[in-house]
Every structure is written in structure tokens, then in C-alpha cells.
Amino acid sequence: xxxxxxxxxxxxxxxxxxxxxxxxxxxxxxxxxxxxxxxxxxxxxxxxxxxxxxxxxxxxxxxxxxxxxxxxxxxxxxxxxxxxxxxxxxxxxxxxxxxxxxxxxxxxxxxxxxxxxxxxxxxxxxxxxxxxxxxxxxxxxxxxxxxxxxxxxxxxxxxxxxxxxxxxxxxxxxxxxxxxxxxxxxxxxxxxxxxxxxxxxxxxxxxxxxxx
Length: 212
Prior knowledge:
alpha/beta, 7-stranded mixed β-sheet, 8 helices
């Protein structure tokens, strides 16, 4: 494919697809070597990634993590949440066994980074994570998974082992016809994020086990 025909294909995808594939690159990482596919969600302008290891045989059940961006956890190493541990655990898993990590750009459960900092400030005053979001005028979770479903369609994936503690992700995929088996993905529990995790379990329905 020459550069001109490639540009024409990109223009066609941008005009006809809601989450078109834009680019792909091989990226060696500390977790392994991945093929990283970039997608553009036209409605929001957000750029999402599919991080792939091994061959994707759509006839088989694919190991999958749908992970939402967490700048504070993944860049700063914040101990307020378990996001970095979940991402790194998923990358290690697919590096060893094959599969896909979808990295969705919906920071702070969809409220954005600056509003997330506002919510953190309210938590310092005694509110929990759900109460803080409500105080700011948001639902406790604004994330959507339509982009993830469109990306899975790009790969032809219909059956997944979904690494998640969040039943809403399972429901979102099953509602669009995917065959989903949930795999627990409980990692990164610390004394600093214990209250946050209990709030996710008690108020947001996440399936999390706690020790004595």
C-alpha cells in the first residue's frame, strides 16, 4: 500500500466508522512486546488503544481487560486507587498468555483529570469517592463502553474472558451480543486504598473480597 492509498483509506474510515482504526506500531515494553493499535472515537475526540499480545483468533475466547485511564495512578503511582496494579497485572497476563488490553481515555470514571482532583480534595474533607462525585454534580461512574465494543468488532472478537471486578462492564458487553466470562482481577489492595475499594464494593457493586 502506498502512502496516498493509505491516506484515502484513513479518510474513508473517518467518514464511515464511529471509532475508526488510525495507526499500529510494535512497542517493546518492560512487560513484553506488544502490537499497539490506535483508534479515534469521533463523537468525543478521545484516542483509545488496543494493546495486543499473541495472535488474535476470533474463533476462540480471548483474554481481555478493558481499562480506563488513570493518570494519577499510572503516572504518579498514587496509592489512592488500584488502577496501576490492575493495568500492569493485565499487561503481564497478556504478555504471558496472549490477549488484549483496551486502554480507554476516560479519566476519573469519566469526569476528567481536573474534576478528579476536585473530588480528591473533597475526599480529604471526609467524603467518599461516590459522595465526592455527586457533590460535583456527576454520577458516580460516567464511563461508557461503546468504543470498546467497536474496537472488539474491528478484531472480530465475540467471546472473551473479561478481567474485571465490575459487573457493569460484563453487562455492557453482553447487551451488545458478546459472550463474556468474568475473571476476577483483584490486585493492588493497600491500606491507603482500602476505603476506596470498600466504597466501590458497597456503593458501585464491584465484586471485591476483603481479608479479615
